[in-house]
Specification:
With about 90 residues, this protein is of the alpha+beta class. Helix content is about 40%, strand content about 25%. The strands form 2 sheets. It has a 4-stranded antiparallel β-sheet. Strands 2-6-5 form a 3-stranded antiparallel β-sheet. A hairpin with a 5-residue loop joins strand 3 (about 25-30) and strand 4. The relative contact order is 0.28.
Length: about 90
């Protein structure tokens, strides 16, 4: 896996989707097999996330962002569970 990927664990799916909606650039879900799904697409969200969800939470995911601010936002969300500070 490339070093620039953000690894997510035990993420609350509804809050994660709300955070994704606030991202400005493309956000990709990257699988261990190297598949990349653009999570800005609702169809890709359904396809990609259903395979990763265990018990209502994302078990494991790798995220790649085209926008550095989005990467920081998702990192903070993953670490602290914070909502989008840009909306505060």
């Amino acid at each position: 896996m490339p070093a620039n990927l953000l690894e997510l664990h035990d993420v609350d799916v509804p809050e994660f989707l709300k955070t994704l909606d606030s991202c400005q650039g493309d956000v990709f879900l990257v699988t261990r097999e190297g598949d990349r799904l653009n999570l800005k697409s609702k169809l890709c969200q359904l396809v990609g996330l259903t395979k990763l969800i265990e018990g209502g939470k994302i078990a494991e995911a790798f995220i790649e962002c085209s926008n550095k601010e989005d990467e920081s936002l998702l990192f903070r969300f993953n670490l602290y569970g914070d909502k989008d500070p840009r909306k505060a």
